[in-house]
Write the structure tokens for this entry.
Amino acid sequence: MKKQYFINANIMDPHNSLNENGGLIISENGTIEAIGKKVNSNNIPAREKIIDLKEKYIFPGLVDMRVFAGEPGYEYKENFRTLSNAALAGGVTSVVTMPNTDPVIDNVSIVDFLKRRGRDKSKINVFPSASLTKNIEGNNMTEFGLLQNKGIIAFTDGTKTIQNTQLMVRIMNSAKDLGTLIMQHAEDYDLAKNGMINSGIVATKLGLSGIPDVAERIIIERDLTLLENIKCRYHISQISSGKSVEIIKERKEKVKFTTGVSINNLSLNENDIGDFRTFLKLSPPLRKEEDRIALVQGLKDETIDVIVSDHKPEDEEQKRLTFAQASTGASGIETLLSLSLELYHNDSLKLETIIKALTSNPAKILKINKGNLSIDNDADFCIVDLEKPWIVKKEKLISKSKNTSIENKKLQGKVTNTFVKGEELFKL
Amino acid sequence: MAIKTNKAIKISQKHLLGIEGLSINDVNLILDESQIFIKLNKSKNKKLNILSGKTQINLFFEPSTRTQSSFELAGKRLGADVMSMNMSNSAIKKGETLIDTAMTLNAMHPDVIVIRHQDSGASNLLSQKVNCAVLNAGDGSREHPTQALLDALTIINRKKKIEGLRIAICGDIAHSRVARSNIYLLNMLGAEVNIIAPSNLMPKEIEKFGVNTFTDMKKGLKDCDIVMMLRLQNERMASSFLSSNREYYEYYGLTPDKLNHAKEDALIMHPGPMNRGIEIDTKLADDINRSVIKEQVEFGVAVRMACLKIFCE
């Protein structure tokens, strides 16, 4: 690889508290050689090819902690190749994939298979998570220690929740012993039973069973209570309500844990479901506008640490059904950054808060050396035109599944180039 | 028989998916037209040829006696070719989706499809995929517009008006499409609506529909002109919404004692089928001075004839 020189970019790297106009030099082996304002046309040899980014932004490659890959078992929805192409178009260079596959990622041999597939087919960094319980049945723990030895960095039942409190205690104890990161999808099954959307006026109007926000709150409060005595690495995958933000804020003073939120819950509310739009059947569900505002506020005051895409590709056949029958989830990895930038453009959040929640914060929680632009690290980054307007069209999405929650939405800000290990793998 | 029907009726909607979406003009058109068919249905020769040459498909994914037969009879009396499909043992069981079924039927060029489905929003989905008119005969817990229209017709014929009446709807509101359609329609026509249900069967934020809510039946019935009882599904006990039939009857069953809180001339309505001794005292149900349950069935045919005629044109 030839050395590459970029100048005149707005560089933002929250991990290194970098926020300045400057340049970037990528070494022959794809690592970051120099970065910042000291890199400019004056100190780059004149014979070299210099790319002037004209004040476009450089962010570290995004780290998306919640992605459904489809491999193995659901390759018709998404495979590692299509996932990485979609991710690159959205500036995402590292993903944590969910274990809700067929078969489930719950044992050492399947991890070997997955890592090989990931390495061969994926162009981005794939960090598979494994399930907390065997076959995601919520009964028996998986082998956290052995799976970690194989490189698993996080454990979650993905779309499922540990309901049994006794089992949760045991999982947390093991996690404490082994330094394991637990990621919980917080939903009480009995309270959420048959529920499809937020419990409230929209559910009542549409005649759909509701999922009350207390279903989320009860699991969060239970787990955080357990955490007082069992200090393990605990992360709430996604929250959806203002009440959850309130409780988390309160508990963060007592115990150490982290929290994520899906970009869907930050950008949309239950009214967007309109006339039974199945693409907005999500878990956790979209709630009221007050909840959305509380979530944005939660990011602002750092109650919430991470924004995820909750990228869940579903083929159209699974969405062209009645609301009750339609599958849950939306494709979103390509639009994660652009949709997040909406919160910057409408003055809800500072740019740095958003980028932190998409890069350094998830990397820190996962304990991976990604989501930063430190010297000698892999040059994983994206170049972003912060102002560029565009419209989301499902037929233009790169992901194999087109189930976007924001079809026809006008967005501002787009990734123009994405690099992994110094190699340009996406160009608009 | 030479009954004149209103000419040049214009409805604002292509489909009848719910009361929500209809204008007051639409409702009045349907109700006025229905009056004509009430007369026709009482005469000797009940057959017209208004819809002759038109094809009506009844697509019932849920078992139904009165709604299905009512729609079938309505279509036949207007001269349509009516095909009733019982979907509980057809292609849908073989894994065909609603949309595929819709496409198949659409290819047969029907003029109207009447659909009953267990999922809320099923008629909306169907209407997006077919070229003909879609009439919702009940979708999940969402709407059952012809039931509300026939209820309104029944009230109007007895009380001469709806505006200003106080109407109680009592029972399993949470799971009831009849309740939702009636709330929309009765509100639109100027009634005051009281909703009576135990908290476990009261849907969230229903008061935002502009109704009064009561968990105490006697209070909810106070000075009501109409008492509309809903059917209690047996499965509600199994999932612990309620403790038992007898306790439900004690607190929410319509008995002479509770009815005394309503106006002296209050009428009793029920969409059927009834659970006698669970939501309604059997004598009250049969009391010809108070109960208009049979009229509801009778007018149901007229309302469906009006809807078929209006939406087929």
Observations:
- Chain B touches chain A at residues 20, 97-99, 117-122, 124-125, 139-143, 177, 180, 203-206, 208-209 (CB under 8 Å).
- Chain B is about 40% helix and 15% strand.
- The mean pLDDT of chain B is 92.
